[in-house]
Each structure stands twice: as C-alpha cells, then as structure tokens.
Specification:
Layout lengths: L2 E4 L2 E4 L4 E7 L11 H16 L4 E5 L12 H15 L6 E4 L3 H9 L4 E4 L8 H6 L4 E5 L17 H18 L7 E4 L8 H9 L1 H8 L4 E2 L5 H7 L7 H13 L4 E4 L2 H14 L5 H9 L11
Parallel strand pairs: 3-4, 3-10, 4-5, 5-6, 6-7, 7-8, 9-10
Antiparallel strand pairs: 1-2
Helix pairs in contact: 1-2, 2-3, 9-10
The protein binds ligand 7PM.
The site of ligand 7PM has 16 residues, from strand 7.
C-alpha cells in the first residue's frame, strides 16, 4: 500500500486525499496574528475537517500573481497561532510558505507537511525539512509571483515541468528526505498561460507515471477555470469540483481545494462509479463485487 509519511501521520494513498485551504490573511478590521484572524481561521479549519478534509493547508502569504510579499515576522505571526490552535485536532497540518524562516517556526509548532511553491529552493530549506519528520510538496513555478504571469514561455511545457520536478525530487532525496515524504505539483497558474495549464492538466497521468511520486493538484477557483466557464472567482465551485474529479481520475493523490464538502462527495462518486483507470479502481473492477465495495467513510 502506497503511503505518505507526514509528520505525526501515515496517510494511506488508496483514495485521493482532500487538502482544505485555510487562508490567514488580515481582513480590513484586523491584522494577522491578532485574536480575530486566528480565531476566524481556526473556525474555518474546523468546518473543513467536519466536511471531510484529510489535510489542512495553512497559508499566511497570498501568492496571487502581482501580490506584494509579506515580511517574515508577519507571516509567522499569522500562521503559527493557527497551527497551535489546530494541533489537538488529529488532522495533518500543512504550511503554505516559501520562506525557510517560516518553515522553521511552523516545524517548531508541529506542522506535518511543508507546502512550498518554490520547491525548497530557499537557502537551507532542503536541510530544514530533511531534519524534520515532515512531508513536503515540491511545486513548479516559472518566475516570481509578482511577475510570473506577464509572459510565461516554454518550448515544451510538459517536458520542462516534468524535468524540473524530477530534479527537485532528486535534490530532496539527496538531502535525505525519504521518497515516502515527497509530493510533486505542476503548479497550475504559476507562470503559465491558459494553453500551458491545459497541456499540463491533460498530461497529469503521464507525469504521474514518469515521476513515480504522488502528485498534488491545485486548480480550485483558478483563472483557468474562469477562462473555461466565463465566471468570476466566486462562481467557480462546480468547475473546481469537475477539475478535482478529473485530476483524481488521472491519478493525482492529493487535491487542494477551497470547497471541501463538494469535492469529498464528488470523489466518492468517482470511486464508486468511475471507469477503472487508477490502481484502486482497477482492483475493485477486477473483483466484480456486487453491492457496496467501500465503506461510507472509507
Ligand atoms: C490568490 C490567488 C491567493 C491564488 C492564492 C492563490 C497552490 C499552492 C497556491 C498550488 C500548491 C491558490 C493560490 N496554489 N500550493 N498554493 N499548489 N502546492 O489558488 O496550486 O490557492 S496559492
């Protein structure tokens, strides 16, 4: 059975896992790190767990194209209190950051997974994760969030992203991070045009095969779904669920989403009614069991 070693947890990868997004960014009334924003983020996180989230991804810096960077101390003040508030929940906690200083503080606060849009390229980041028991998600991006969407260019986007992820996987292995702790992510929307995103999405199954590590896919509410549907960010829930199902069908092991409840339901439907294409579904088909093959919460 394939598994992901993830801090305090050993996650079985026999079904796609749902990672729920928890943003800790200040609203107009409160600054990050104050009681209000911590309590609001923790309350939202609890709702996501009730809705069936397998992992919570806590982020204190918006990586939106064109977004300003958040100073290290501010990002720590936002994220660490939320990690502390959720420690006792018995759910794996991930931190969405590219700053080694924030990773260090999050690891000290007991985070189980480091989700890094810079694939541990920061100074000392590989070593930090290697010395911890945490899992890591290594994501591809082209350029910096501030400028990455201005003119992304590739000769062969699928080959270049696959080669980059293979190289970062190898760098992580060489640093002493065990293979069973590594997730790879093509980084939808990070320095990619609509056509690049489409080519990558259609190549997910092939990339999964080639890379030999579990994949994390994050397309929830992203602009590629806006381009397909013509809808604004607040009306992309159905498109996001559809994309989550397709990513899971292509073999992605972790799906990063805002709408956890809808995604959990859709993935249950996929597992029961889907055409056998990934390992677990093929096994069920071969057994040709009549009646339910899966428990309600399995
Ligand atoms: C505003 C716009 C805020 C877009 C945040 C975002 C990914 C991620 C993000 C992803 C992994 C979002 C992005 N996206 N981490 N962090 N993979 N591993 O849409 O695709 O959530 S931030």
């Amino acid at each position: 059975m394939q598994k992901l070693l993830c801090g305090r947890f050993e996650l079985l990868l026999h079904r796609p896992l749902v990672m729920g997004i928890v943003n800790v960014t200040p609203d107009s009334f409160s600054d990050g790190g104050c009681f209000d924003s911590t309590a609001a983020a923790a309350a939202h996180a609890r709702k996501l767990v009730e809705a069936g989230a397998d992992i919570l991804d806590i982020g204190g810096e918006s990586t939106r194209p064109g977004a300003a960077t958040v100073p290290v101390e501010e990002e720590i003040r936002r994220v660490v209190p939320v990690l502390q508030a959720l420690q006792s929940m018995n759910v794996p906690l991930s931190v969405d950051t590219r700053k080694p200083e924030v990773m260090r503080a999050a690891l000290e606060a007991g985070v189980d997974l480091v989700n890094d849009i810079a694939a541990l390229e920061g100074v000392g980041a590989l070593e930090l994760v290697a010395q911890s028991g945490a899992a890591v998600c290594l994501m591809h991006k082209q350029g910096d969030p501030r400028s990455m969407q201005s003119a992304p260019e590739y000769a062969d986007v699928v080959a270049e992203v696959t080669n980059y992820l293979a190289a970062r996987r190898d760098a992580a292995l060489a640093a002493g991070i065990a293979r069973e702790r590594i997730l790879l992510d093509p980084g939808f929307g990070f320095g990619k045009t609509f056509e690049h995103n489409v080519a990558l999405f259609r190549a997910l199954a092939a990339m999964r095969q080639e890379l030999g590590c579990p994949l994390l896919v994050g397309v929830s509410r992203k602009s590629m779904l806006g381009q397909i549907t013509g809808k604004p960010v607040g009306e992309r829930a159905s498109a996001s669920v559809a994309a989550a199902v397709l990513a899971a069908q292509a073999g992605a092991e972790v799906i990063r989403v805002h709408d956890v409840a809808g995604t959990v339901d859709a993935l249950k439907v996929l597992r029961t009614l889907g055409v056998a294409c990934c390992e677990a579904l093929r096994d069920n088909a071969r057994l040709s069991v009549k009646g339910p093959v899966l428990g309600p919460n399995d």
